[in-house]
Structures are given as C-alpha cells and as structure tokens.
Amino acid sequence: MYYFPEQPPYFLLLVGFLTALTSGLALSGTLKVIVQKWPNQRIENTKPRSSLKQLFVPFVGITGGTCLFLSSGLEIFGFPSSLALGVGLPISLFTCLLVWLQLGSMMTFIEREGMQSLDLDSFS
Question: Interior CA angle at 28 toward 100 and 63, to 5°?
Fold first, then answer.
C-alpha cells in the first residue's frame, strides 16, 4: 500500500524558501558591514571569531529554512513526513556545517592576508 499525504505541504515549502532567502539577505548585509569595518579597525582585538558571532543568527535562519524547504520538497514527492525529515535534516545540517567552517576559514584568511589575496583576476 502506498502512502499519499492528504495535502502536500506547499505552504511549508514556500515558508522554508522565504526563510532561507531573507536570512541569506541578512547574512549578506551583515557580512558586507563587517568587511567594510575591517580597514578602519586595524587593531588586534577585532578577531574573525567575534565577527562570526554576528553572523550566527542569520546563518541559523538559513539552515532552518533549508531544512524545511528540503523536507517539504521530499514530502511533496511522496515521502512520509518522518522519512522526509530524517533525510532533509542531516543533509541540510551537514551542508550548512561545512559552509560555516569554510566561511570562518575564509574570514581568517582575509584577516591575515588581506582582501587582495582573493582577487583571482590580477596576476601580480
């Protein structure tokens, strides 16, 4: 016997997408403000780890929105709710953890080497 949900969670899919999108815009704006402040504050007490604390809440919003979007999408394609959440949650958490670690290492690299180290177009 096949399992078909009574009503697919299209609303939750839209909510997850909009949550991830608005949190991504907030993360982008916060990251731009942090990077613009770096040349003005060349003192040693502004470390990238303190900057990561400001980015944590928008990043958690992206993670939650991605998880909700992925789980709802799997439910729309006929997965049971528990299986959709069981697949969507680990995938989104693992992916977001890797992105968070990469973001932290890139901020540390930029702090140490400067913004010019990321310019791939120049051959100096």
Answer: 40
